[in-house]
Input
Amino acid sequence: MLPDLRAYERFIYTLPQQFPVIERSTLVLILHGPAFAELNGSLLFAQDVVLHVWEDLDFIDGVITGYSYGAFRGAERLYWYDPQPHPNNPDLALNHPHHKHVPPNIKRNRIPHPN
Output
């Protein structure tokens, strides 16, 4: 469950202070009315590691309605998370539709999203 909009905004904009491993943040919370927002940007870490973040947020129901998180080292895609349904893959049933894409064959190699 998401906290209220202001609490989430404080959390997002203080991530580098809370977690010194984050060298820089470009995350921006874009409001789409009083209770809906989109989070977009990146978290930059040492050794050229970047986490690209996109979230679609509904603060009325307190949920993330859409997301994509992708980790890169330079141009190399390390892994990503997304909620694209794959109903024919029984290995993903536990957390359907949430899952992680990992090498090798990162586009097709999916594992269950951790709880």
